């Protein structure tokens, strides 16, 4: 039986199918699990090959109270259904495929809703990577080409979500973005990224046009916050006095724009530049930065 803190969660339909391996949720029950169908009772001390096979079967499970007052799990399930929707001539899934954790199973029992999603190991969040890079004892700067990669990938994801799925995330930040470090799943020679946790997402068809538009704008400012965090550790960007080439100067302009457009906690009044305008202004620059890095 799953246990969260001192509380046992009576979810028999889940417990019959999955075995928790590691619990890491703080607000809700979230855990890495193994499908019981993959476990062999005859193996007491599994060999390396069997452990590797099991590692590939690990999934991530979220369990939440199912009630009219807590619709987060149901909301996330609807979002995954919307993301996976496709039809003739629908190009959205070509962009979204591989950028989310696919929902593989779900159920409701005894007042709980559980969602099972594909997991991948190893992985880490952009937040964990950024905190490691900017640790005062290391003083490492995030590679410019990787920041440019995240800039382009996040633009692709958010523009497709907003325009073709009429979906806004609502809680985008560096710890909601995973880096996929598995070999063979790179995108454009860089690690792929995936957005997680859609329980605060807003769908236009259920949330209404006004709330959807407001959340799209929130995604926009939080996108800028993500780039500002990676590029400058949330500090006002400054020019490198030792570098005078045009590419570095243009890159400073991009970083300064991300700082100016991030949430108003920075004390700077943004100009509400849309994601499409950001792509028009800086998309080519980001691709140029990546291209230069690949030739060095």
TrEMBL record:
InterPro entries: Kinase-like_dom_sf, Prot_kinase_dom. Residues 37-296 form the Protein kinase domain. It comes from the Eukaryota. One of its GO terms (molecular function) is ATP binding. PROSITE patterns: PROTEIN_KINASE_DOM. This is Protein kinase domain-containing protein. It comes from Lophiostoma macrostomum CBS 122681.
């Amino acid at each position: 039986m799953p246990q969260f803190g001192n509380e046992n969660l009576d979810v028999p339909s889940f417990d019959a199918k999955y075995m928790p391996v590691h619990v890491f949720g703080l607000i809700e029950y979230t855990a890495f699990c193994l499908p019981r169908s993959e476990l062999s009772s005859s193996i007491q001390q599994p060999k390396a090959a069997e452990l590797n096979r099991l590692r590939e079967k690990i999934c991530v499970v979220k369990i939440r109270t199912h009630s009219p007052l807590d619709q987060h799990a149901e909301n996330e399930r609807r979002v995954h259904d919307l993301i996976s929707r496709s039809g003739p001539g629908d190009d959205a899934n070509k962009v979204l495929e591989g950028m989310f954790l696919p929902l593989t199973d779900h159920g409701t029992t005894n007042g709980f809703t559980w969602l099972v999603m594909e997991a991948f190991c190893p992985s880490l969040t952009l937040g964990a990577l950024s905190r490691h890079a900017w640790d005062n004892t290391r003083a490492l700067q995030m590679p410019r080409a990787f920041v440019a990669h995240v800039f382009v990938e996040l633009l692709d994801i958010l523009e497709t979500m907003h325009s073709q799925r009429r979906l806004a995330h609502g809680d985008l930040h560096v710890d909601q973005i995973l880096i996929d470090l598995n070999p063979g799943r790179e995108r454009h020679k860089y690690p792929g990224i995936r957005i997680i946790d859609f329980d605060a997402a807003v769908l236009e068809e259920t949330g209404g046009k006004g709330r959807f538009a407001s959340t799209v704008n929130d995604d926009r400012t939080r996108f800028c916050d993500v780039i500002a965090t990676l590029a400058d550790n949330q500090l006002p960007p400054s020019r490198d006095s030792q570098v005078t080439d045009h590419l570095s100067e243009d890159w400073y302009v991009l970083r300064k724009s991300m700082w100016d457009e991030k949430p108003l906690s920075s004390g700077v009044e943004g100009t509400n530049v849309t994601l499409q305008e950001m792509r028009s202004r800086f998309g080519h620059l980001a691709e140029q930065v990546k291209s230069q890095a690949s030739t060095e």
